[in-house]
Amino acid sequence: MMKDQKLTSGFPSLKFFNGPLQYVNLLAFLLFFAFGLTAGVFLSLQFKNVTFNLLVNDGQISLSSSPSRPSPPPPVTTALPPPPGKVMKHKGLADLLEPPDIMHDMNDEELLWKASMTPKIQEFPFKRVPKVAFMFLTRGPVSLAPLWEKFFKGHKGLYSIYVHPNPSYNGSEPEGSVFHGRRIPSKEVQWGNVNMIEAERRLLANALLDVSNQRFVLVSEACIPLFNFSIVYNYLMNSTLSHVEVYDQAGPVGRGRYSRQMQPLIKIEDWRKGSQWFEMDRDLALEVISDKTYFPAFQHYCKGSCYADEHYLPTFVNMKFGKKTSKRTLTHADWSKGGPHPMSFYRDRVTAELLEKMRSGSNCVHNGSKNDTCHLFARKFPPQSLDRLVRFAPKLMHFNQ
Ligand SMILES: *[C@@H]1O[C@H](CO)[C@@H](O)[C@H](O)[C@H]1NC(C)=O
Ligand SMILES: *[C@@H]1O[C@H](CO)[C@@H](O)[C@H](O)[C@H]1NC(C)=O
Ligand SMILES: *[C@@H]1O[C@H](CO)[C@@H](O)[C@H](O)[C@H]1NC(C)=O
Ligand SMILES: *[C@@H]1O[C@H](CO)[C@@H](O)[C@H](O)[C@H]1NC(C)=O
Ligand SMILES: *[C@@H]1O[C@H](CO)[C@@H](O)[C@H](O)[C@H]1NC(C)=O
Fold it and tell me: Which residue spans traverse the membrane (predicted)?
């Protein structure tokens, strides 16, 4: 009884209990107390390892706690030496963003998947200088390379070059050329075949692997620039729209190439035409290489006299991203003689007057206002035109001399 009274005085709540139940409750209470004590001791030991830092920063006070490090492990005396020839390197963001070797071993499926990745955070945590990716879709060598060399001279860091030749081409550009080592893994391409678009998507995907590339221009070995690099660069970087030509044409060479098998995904009213030679920004390039809906329809049903290269991008871009394109091409071509190919400019047709005429086009809308520069590039210039072009074009176009 005394014992009970003593306890009752110490623990007033216990006085409500009586009889055998009291002992059961007491036991439970003691167990609970012991558990609490253990937990308390354990936690206080944990908190001994935490140091509290009071930070006073520009008048703002913040409390930060950081676990102090556990005592360091004893030094490992038998550390393995680094493997010979391999220096252990800490990787920074720059290393992680380095694009893979231009001649990588990825197949198309792997390449497109890798290239479709895009950062969710829009701001770059470093100074990103945007580049223009020049994508050369060629049969063999870049035959007008000496002219392009002069165009690129002095603008390193503002452009990157990708060349997709026919796989059977075994030549290579000399060291020191801007085209040296810029060949990407390529596959066979036939004029008018859908594999032409596969090559364009391959070029886009390879160029997307470089996070600095912002604008993407498709050119062929028969294309030339019409302005110097700084004008081209500013025109593209300042452009709010991409340049994928889009128009609706009746008749056999327009809507006549549509295949009913594309219904209901693509209706005849959706069918569009446009030049193969495009220019687009990074966002649109990502959409093009990620298209798993419309492109397969072209792979299956755009055969024979369908000419995917003149219809896939105009139709797809117009249907899904019509507001993102100026609907005009930046590459000048002369179709005045009619037929399936534009005019080729051989030797004496290549004159200063011709280039001036191509440069001063007509009236175009650039960035929402009128601009007299409609074309930045022109075709078709066969290899024989190189001599004359190199002789007067750099001066006429104010290349960096
Ligand atoms: C390149 O291909 C041609 C024939 O297509 C062949 O005659 C030549 O030897 C090849 N050159 C090299 C370096 O492989
Ligand atoms: C864009 O246009 C402005 C004004 O026309 C010019 O000052 C600037 O250098 C251009 N280029 C870029 C890359 O913004
Ligand atoms: C055309 O656009 C270019 C590039 O943005 C700009 O520098 C030039 O001033 C524009 N020309 C006209 C006539 O607006
Ligand atoms: C084009 O538009 C962009 C974005 O609105 C602007 O930064 C740029 O200065 C404009 N360029 C011209 C030549 O109007
Ligand atoms: C590019 O051409 C324009 C005139 O067309 C000229 O004012 C400018 O200085 C040239 N740029 C370079 C880097 O030579």
Answer: 21-45
Q: Indicate if the pLDDT at residue 8 is higher than 80.
A: no
Query: What is the distance in A from the centroid of ligand 3 to the CA of 387?
Result: 31
End-to-end CA distance of the chain: 111
> 38 is written with which tokens?
């253990």
Q: Is residue 317 part of a domain?
A: yes
pTM: 0.79
CATH number of the domain to which 141 belongs:
3.90.550
The boundaries of the domain holding residue 329 are 113-118+126-334+342-396
What is the C-alpha to C-alpha distance for residues 341 and 328, in angstroms, rounded to an integer? 18
Residues in the chain: 401
CA of residue 170 to ligand 1 center, whole Å: 6
Instruction: Specify the number of domains making up the chain.
Output: 1
More confident residue, 84 or 49: 84
Give per-residue pLDDT as tens, 213-230: 999 999 999 999 999 999
Nearest residue (CA) to ligand 5, atom 14: 400
Cα(395) to centroid of ligand 2, in Å?
Answer: 23
